[in-house]
């Protein structure tokens, strides 16, 4: 049903009772669902015939899996924002710089000072020699937070 048909039908629908409108909506929804099922069948049939025609090629049914990868610096700052000390320790032991910053200059040390996380601060400064003299965009250094 196209837009002009729906507009033409509005005057008739306005005079229907609530029950009649609900029944009409239910029937239309069922019809939409049937149309969708039919389109899916046709799409799958077309897809299967396309696969059969390309049987000598690489298996088309296995779609490449999508993965999102974040840099270690981003993962460090995210772990610090979650106060995940174990993850921060793991990343630092992996060699990620404790001085890694985001685009605003915020470091894991800034984040732990903002969150008042003393355990994270000790991890960064004592265990991994994080520098305290880094500033982020608002001009705040960890020793001033």
Automatic annotation (TrEMBL):
<dbReference type="GO" id="GO:0017020">
    <property type="term" value="F:myosin phosphatase regulator activity"/>
</dbReference>
<protein>
    <submittedName>
        <fullName>Protein phosphatase 1 regulatory subunit 16A</fullName>
    </submittedName>
</protein>
<feature type="region of interest" description="Disordered">
    <location>
        <begin position="37"/>
        <end position="62"/>
    </location>
</feature>
<dbReference type="Pfam" id="PF13637">
    <property type="entry name" value="Ank_4"/>
</dbReference>
<dbReference type="InterPro" id="IPR036770">
    <property type="entry name" value="Ankyrin_rpt-contain_sf"/>
</dbReference>
<keyword id="KW-0677">Repeat</keyword>
<feature type="compositionally biased region" description="Low complexity">
    <location>
        <begin position="52"/>
        <end position="62"/>
    </location>
</feature>
<dbReference type="InterPro" id="IPR002110">
    <property type="entry name" value="Ankyrin_rpt"/>
</dbReference>
<dbReference type="GO" id="GO:0005737">
    <property type="term" value="C:cytoplasm"/>
</dbReference>
<dbReference type="InterPro" id="IPR051226">
    <property type="entry name" value="PP1_Regulatory_Subunit"/>
</dbReference>
<dbReference type="GO" id="GO:0004857">
    <property type="term" value="F:enzyme inhibitor activity"/>
</dbReference>
């Amino acid at each position: 049903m196209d837009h002009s048909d729906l507009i033409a039908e509005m005057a008739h629908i306005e005079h229907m009772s609530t029950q009649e409108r609900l029944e009409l909506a239910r029937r239309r929804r069922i019809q939409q669902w049937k149309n969708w099922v039919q389109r899916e069948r046709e799409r799958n049939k077309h897809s299967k015939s396309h696969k059969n025609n390309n049987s000598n090629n690489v298996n088309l049914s296995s779609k490449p899996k999508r993965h999102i990868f974040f840099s270690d610096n981003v993962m460090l700052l995210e772990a610090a924002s979650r106060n995940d000390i174990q993850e921060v320790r793991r990343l630092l032991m992996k060699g990620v710089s404790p001085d890694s910053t985001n685009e605003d200059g915020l470091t894991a040390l800034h984040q732990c000072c903002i969150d008042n996380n003393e355990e994270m601060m000790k991890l960064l400064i004592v265990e991994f020699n994080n520098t305290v003299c880094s500033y982020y965009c608002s001009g705040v250094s960890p020793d001033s937070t």
